[in-house]
Specification:
alpha/beta; five-stranded parallel β-sheet
Length: 93
C-alpha cells in the first residue's frame, strides 16, 4: 500500500466521462479512497500494483486481464444492461 492510502481506480475509455466522474467523486468528502483515473486498461495495469481496494471499470474496458490486479472489489459500469460476468457488481453508467 502506498503510505497507507486506500486506492480506488476508475477506468473508462471515454475520457470526458472519466474526468467528470472523477471530479464528482473527489467532491465527496466521506470517500475513504484516493482516486486514480485511467482511460486505458494498459495504463491501469502498468500503474496499479499496490493498495488497490476498489476498481470501478466501464463494461467496454473490462477484460479478464484486470483480474490480475486482485482488487478486493470490482464495480462494473454497465453500458449494455447485460450482466455477462459473475462475481462483479454492476451499476448503470
Amino acid at each position: 500500500m502506498r503510505d497507507g492510502e486506500k486506492i480506488m481506480a476508475l477506468c473508462d475509455t471515454e475520457e470526458e466521462y472519466a474526468q467528470l466522474m472523477t471530479e464528482f467523486l473527489r467532491k465527496k468528502k466521506e470517500l475513504p479512497w484516493k482516486i486514480h483515473t485511467y482511460t486505458s486498461v494498459q495504463e491501469l495495469m502498468k500503474e496499479e500494483r499496490e493498495g488497490l481496494e476498489l476498481l470501478v471499470i466501464s463494461e467496454s474496458a473490462y477484460c479478464d486481464r484486470v483480474l490480475e490486479l486482485e482488487a478486493p472489489r470490482i464495480v462494473l459500469l454497465s453500458e449494455s444492461g447485460v450482466m455477462r460476468w459473475e462475481n462483479v457488481c454492476y451499476v448503470d453508467k
